Structures are given as structure tokens and as C-alpha cells.
UniProtKB/TrEMBL annotation:
Keyword entries, A-Z: Lyase, Magnesium, Metal-binding
MF terms (GO), sorted A to Z: lyase activity; magnesium ion binding
GO BP term (any one): oxaloacetate metabolic process
Presence of keyword Lyase: yes
Residues making up the signal peptide according to the UniProt record: none
Binding site for Mg(2+): E119, D143
Residues reported in the UniProt entry to bind substrate: R68, E119
The protein's name: CoA ester lyase
Species the sequence originates in: Sphingomonas edaphi
Occurrences of domain HpcH/HpaI aldolase/citrate lyase (ranges): 11-211
Superkingdom of the source species: Bacteria
Cofactor(s) named in the record: Mg(2+)
Length: 268
């Protein structure tokens, strides 16, 4: 059966070089785990991290596991791709994608679903082409902020157009889309606010950097009790066509949205 990447709220990244983090991720409630070989791993640890990642995915996991390989412009990607060909990884994450070819090479060599990270201005502008080879797009907001030369305190306002472009592209192509990471490890309120924003933007989930972000992420993405009970009332009341429901006009697409919300609530 094809692996669906839709509706996976908690996407946990961790360095493949950290054995204790791998053990913790395996026991976590993450909906997708990404073992990183790229920026979280020091150059001198690249080979051992690659071996550790391949070893880790050979074991059974309760959730799908991805490996983020190194980028096409690095000396490591060739060895990463060969290792992926012989591994049992579910999804391969390709960082800093800027062309369709960045993905097609990895996909053709490995035959695995690819999640493309959009983390540069060029990547955002080429997202439509990149998405044709991808099973999901992931916003790389740290790299994007650096590429756009944003000051550290810029917040997410200057990233909104990029985030919406990523979401629009994913929806137009029929693939999943994930929001970027929140770096503030001890800022619980900041994380919760950003996760809610990600859900409101329409993302399927959020990239996470620490297991303690998983619970708050699920809470932010889960339909609320009010949303669930309104959806149930709407589905029970709707007769088709435009009509008044609790003071608002509703039509067919609102009923479909209510059905999607209830399906998500059941899965949550
Ligand atoms: C950010 C960290 C380096 C912080 O590490 P540390 O201060 O050591 O964390 P703790 O002491 O709180 O850790 C407690 C235990 O939890 C485990 N742990 C920590 N993080 C993770 C994790 N992500 N997954 C699983 N387990 C984790 C620790 O091992 C401790 O376990 P134990 O020793 O048994 O008690 C660290 O959190 C970290 O490395 N996070 C992930 C970093 C990462 O993967 N970065 C790459 C992806 S983000 C990115 O690049 C986005 C994108 O590309 C962009 O451009 O935006
Ligand atoms: Mg990045």
C-alpha cells in the first residue's frame, strides 16, 4: 500500500548521529520521524551517521521513518543515495531543492517517495516543478530566513508568502505540505502559537526538533471539541445547496470540510 504523508501533525527531526535520540524517537508519538544526515550532523560524523540511519531503519518502527540525505551540491550525497538504495527507509528527504532534477535523480535511483525541502528563494520559485517529483514539500524556514537575509528578530511575517506558496503548490499538486521548525526549545507559548498558525495556513503538520514539542503539536493540529460538535451539527442539518446554518451560509464544500474534520478527529 502507498504510504500517505497527509495529515501527519508531528514530524520529528533528529540527528542520525545521536543514538539516544533515535531510541527516544522510536518510542515517541511522532507521526513521521526524520533521521537527519544533513545540517544536524558534523562533517566528520557523516559516514557513521549514515551507517546508523541505515541500521535504524532496518528495525521495525511504529511510524514511518525518513532519512534526510545531504544536498546535491555536497560531497556526501552520492554515498547517501547508494546507502538509501540498500536501506529499508520509507521516505527520503532532500534538502535545499531548487530544481526538479534535484529530486528525479534521487527518486530514480532509490524508487522511494521523496519529500522535498523548500529552503531558498530559488526553491520557492521552482516549487511547482519540484512538486511534480515529490510526495511532500517541507518548509525549511531557517535556511529560507538566511537566504532572504532576514534579521534574527524578523519573525514569520516576511516568510508568509513563501509558506503560502509551498502550501498552494502542494495542494495544487495533490501532495502533503509541512511547516518548518520552531527553534525556541523552552518557549512553549511561542511554539503553540506557531503550530496553530501552521494549522491555520493549511499544513498537514509541523517539523519538530525535540520530543517535547510532539504533544503540543498534536494539541494544536487536533480539531477542537467545538469544531467537532459544530461539524456534527452541520452534517446532520445540511440538506444540499445554499442554506442558513447557525447564522452562516453553508454549501456543499462546507459539508465536505466538516466530514474531513471528523475523519481527522477520528484518526487523532
Ligand atoms: C536541539 C538539540 C541539540 C537540543 O539537545 P539537548 O539540549 O541535548 O536536548 P535535551 O537535553 O532536552 O534532550 C533530552 C533527551 O531528549 C533526546 N532528544 C533531544 N532532541 C531529540 C529529538 N529531536 N528527537 C529525539 N530525541 C531527542 C535527547 O537525546 C535526550 O535523551 P536522553 O539523553 O536519553 O535523556 C536536540 O534537541 C536536537 O538535536 N534536535 C534535533 C536537531 C535536528 O535534527 N536538526 C535538523 C532538523 S531542523 C532543520 O534543519 C530545519 C530546516 O532544515 C531549516 O532550514 O529550517
Ligand atoms: Mg535547512
Amino acid at each position: 500500500m502507498t504510504l500517505s504523508l497527509f495529515d501527519r501533525p508531528a514530524v520529528l527531526f533528529l540527528p542520525a548521529s545521536n543514538a539516544r535520540a533515535i531510541a527516544k524517537a522510536r518510542e515517541s508519538r511522532a507521526d513521521l520521524v526524520i533521521l537527519d544526515l544533513e545540517d544536524a550532523v558534523k562533517p566528520e560524523d557523516k559516514d557513521s551517521a549514515r551507517d546508523a540511519a541505515v541500521h535504524a531503519v532496518a528495525e521495525p518502527w511504529p511510524m514511518p521513518v525518513a532519512i534526510r540525505i545531504n544536498g546535491s551540491k555536497t560531497e556526501w550525497q552520492g554515498r547517501d543515495v547508494v546507502a538509501m538504495m540498500h536501506s529499508r527507509v520509507d521516505v527520503i528527504v532532500v534538502p535545499r531543492t531548487e530544481t526538479r532534477e534535484d529530486l528525479s535523480f534521487v527518486r530514480n535511483q532509490t524508487g522511494r517517495p521523496i519529500a522535498a525541502m523548500i529552503e531558498t528563494a530559488r526553491g520557492v520559485l521552482a516549487a511547482g516543478e519540484i512538486a511534480k517529483e515529490a510526495a511532500a514539500l517541507i518548509a525549511g524556514t531557517n535556511d529560507l530566513a538566511a537566504d532572504l537575509r532576514l534579521p534574527r528578530d524578523a519573525g514569520r511575517s516576511p516568510l508568509q508568502m513563501a509558506l503560502q506558496s509551498i502550501l498552494l503548490t502542494a495542494r495544487a499538486t495533490g501532495i502533503a505540505a509541512f511547516d518548518g521548525v520552531f527553534n525556541g526549545l523552552d518557549d512553549e507559548q511561542g511554539f503553540a502559537a506557531e503550530a496553530v498558525e501552521g494549522r491555520r495556513l493549511g499544513f498537514d503538520g509541523k517539523s519538530l526538533i525535540h520530543p517535547k514539542q510532539i504533544g503540543p503539536c498534536h494539541a494544536a493540529f487536533a480539531p477542537t471539541d467545538d469544531e467537532i460538535s459544530r461539524a456534527e451539527r452541520l452534517i446532520a442539518a445540511a440538506t444540499g445547496g445554499a442554506e442558513r446554518f447557525e447564522g452562516e451560509m453553508v454549501e456543499r464544500m462546507h459539508v465536505e470540510a466538516a466530514e474531513r474534520l471528523l475523519a481527522r478527529a477520528r484518526r487523532a
